[in-house]
């Protein structure tokens, strides 16, 4: 459970790193190239179980936006969580409060499930403005800005998230949150946000991912 030190900024369209850094138990990963925060125990073990049950009940094969011809690029399963479910709505509000971003800028939370051997190869969460699918995915709400991701469990082996450009590997831990800015200091898409959801070697891995947009999503 995150204890917030103050009310979030009213109707902010973007996160303030100083706001995030002021939350209790937040660590900033030392890097000039990427703004990346970690907070352990963002969710309780019970909350994680509640999310895992919902993900397992509604999962489907994961997809990627800009198809790149590699059928093994993202082999996990995905679930669009139901925001009419009060349990999900409470967690969604907590993510918004952590980021300090007004709720309409957030995409619905997704769940991801990785079985043994499954992974999400190195990618960025922002859409390439020169990519063929950019207009399709970004014409209304703009590009992705911040990513919040929470590990819901700990696979027995594998499943770390590796930020390849900054040489940082984060190990899954039940309830641990990652928050990073997909843009650089000038506000442009930041290639240093490249990350790889590495293969699970034993056990299962579940995470939730929440992406924020430049403009309201819905
Ligand atoms: O599972 C992970 O460690 C990374 C997930 C991810 O990068 C994504 O869903 O965009
Ligand atoms: Fe990602």
UniProtKB/TrEMBL annotation:
The protein's required cofactor(s) are namely: L-ascorbate
Q: Which Gene3D superfamilies match?
A: q2cbj1_9rhob like domain (2.60.120.620)
Tell me the domain of life: Bacteria
Keywords annotated in UniProt: Dioxygenase, Iron, Metal-binding, Oxidoreductase, Vitamin C
Q: Name one GO molecular function term.
A: L-ascorbic acid binding
SMART domains attached to this UniProt entry: P4Hc
- Record Pfam families: 2OG-FeII_Oxy_3 (PF13640)
Residue span, Fe2OG dioxygenase domain:
105-214
Q: What is this protein called?
A: 2OG-Fe(II) oxygenase
**What's the source species for this entry?**
Sphingobium psychrophilum
Kindly list the organism's lineage: Bacteria, Pseudomonadati, Pseudomonadota, Alphaproteobacteria, Sphingomonadales
């Amino acid at each position: 459970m995150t204890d917030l030190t103050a009310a979030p900024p009213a109707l902010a369209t973007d996160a303030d790193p100083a706001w995030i850094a002021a939350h209790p138990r937040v660590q900033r990963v030392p890097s000039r190239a990427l703004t990346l925060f970690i907070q352990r125990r963002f969710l309780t073990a019970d909350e994680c179980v509640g999310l895992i049950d919902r993900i397992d009940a509604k999962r489907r094969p994961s997809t990627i936006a800009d198809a790149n011809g590699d059928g093994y690029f993202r082999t996990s399963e995905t679930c669009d969580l139901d925001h009419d479910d009060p349990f999900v709505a409470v967690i969604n509000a907590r993510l918004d409060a952590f980021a300090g971003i007004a709720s309409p800028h957030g995409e619905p939370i997704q769940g991801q499930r990785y079985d043994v051997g499954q992974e999400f190869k190195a990618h960025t969460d922002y859409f390439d403005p020169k990519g063929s699918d950019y207009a399709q995915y970004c014409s209304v709400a703009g590009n992705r800005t911040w990513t919040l991701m929470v590990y819901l469990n700990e696979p027995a082996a594998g499943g770390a998230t590796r930020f390849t450009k900054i040489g940082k590997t984060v190990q899954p831990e039940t309830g641990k949150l990652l928050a990073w800015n997909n843009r650089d200091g000038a506000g442009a898409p930041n290639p240093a946000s490249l990350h790889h959801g590495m293969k699970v070697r034993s056990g299962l891995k579940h995470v939730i991912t929440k992406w924020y947009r430049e403009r309201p999503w819905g």
